[in-house]
Write a sequence for this structure.
């Protein structure tokens, strides 16, 4: 069959968009690769009434809600998206849609320091609004480059949650260990938690066959798929984006809100009542 909408990505943005479309009586297929960015975290935060819920529990509840409104959720990874919105999965199966909503999120690229990636999402953190309250008052190390604007920004932020925040120069670190950070001179700086900035790269290579490519984000933090309006429309007619794939800084609740907005506007687009795209000249 040809679905009204295929949603590529089953995180908060994709599931929220699918629910909105299902409630609009649209046929919806959600394809989820299971590569949730926040999977290592113990719980989500700053989501009213859902604070502390595990990412796995949140996704399971979201999937059930999509299915309650007639949508279908399929585990799989999209490898290409061709003309006519024909999407091909890694297992060779093909699905077609009238519109695409891309909510595949991003991949965090961490500095190449032994022991760092293994602790990502548990004792290695990035967002004070996501984790700051839980580690308040603890010994925190901010990994970065002295004098770098983003490093200084992180230091000032995390100092709001703890009086014991220390800058750890990235070029002097040889490994991250259970009790702290091993420095080039052999010393161990004990820290309970570490903070590190990542390069955030949109998961959207499969869109290139549609002429839609990832580009550098204006803030210099990685790549994203740009939207041409606040609802998530792209410059490829019929393709919409929401969540971290287009807004790397979005948290769970804002990604869910963006998915809802995109879903509602896709429904309007299918009815032919969406305003013309902005003039980019």
């Amino acid at each position: 069959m040809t679905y009204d909408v295929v949603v590529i990505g089953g995180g908060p943005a994709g599931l929220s968009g699918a629910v909105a479309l299902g409630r609009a009586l649209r046929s919806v297929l959600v394809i989820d690769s299971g590569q949730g960015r926040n999977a290592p975290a113990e719980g989500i935060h700053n989501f009213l009434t859902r604070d502390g819920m595990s990412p796995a529990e949140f996704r399971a509840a979201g999937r059930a809600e999509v299915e309650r409104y007639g949508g279908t959720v399929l585990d799989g990874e999209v490898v290409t998206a061709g003309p006519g919105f024909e999407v091909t999965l890694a297992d060779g199966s093909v699905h077609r849609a009238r519109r695409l909503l891309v909510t595949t999120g991003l991949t965090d690229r961490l500095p190449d320091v032994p022991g760092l990636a293994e602790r990502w999402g548990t004792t290695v953190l990035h967002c004070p609004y996501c984790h700051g309250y839980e580690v308040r008052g603890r010994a925190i190390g901010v990994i970065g480059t002295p004098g770098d604007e983003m490093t200084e920004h992180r230091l000032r932020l995390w100092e709001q949650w703890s009086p014991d925040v220390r800058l750890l120069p990235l070029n002097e670190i040889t490994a991250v260990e259970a009790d702290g950070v091993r420095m080039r001179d052999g010393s161990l700086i004990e820290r309970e938690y570490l903070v590190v900035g990542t390069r955030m790269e949109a998961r959207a290579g499969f869109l290139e066959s549609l002429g839609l490519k990832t580009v550098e984000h204006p803030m210099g933090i990685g790549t994203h798929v740009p939207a041409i309006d606040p609802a998530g429309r792209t410059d490829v007619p019929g393709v919409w984006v929401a969540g971290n794939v287009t807004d790397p800084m979005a948290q769970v609740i804002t990604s869910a809100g963006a998915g809802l907005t995109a879903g509602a506007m896709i429904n309007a687009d299918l009815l032919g009542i969406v305003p013309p795209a902005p003039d980019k000249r």
About this structure: The two ends are 38 Å apart (CA to CA). The chain has two domains: 2-107+199-270, 111-196.
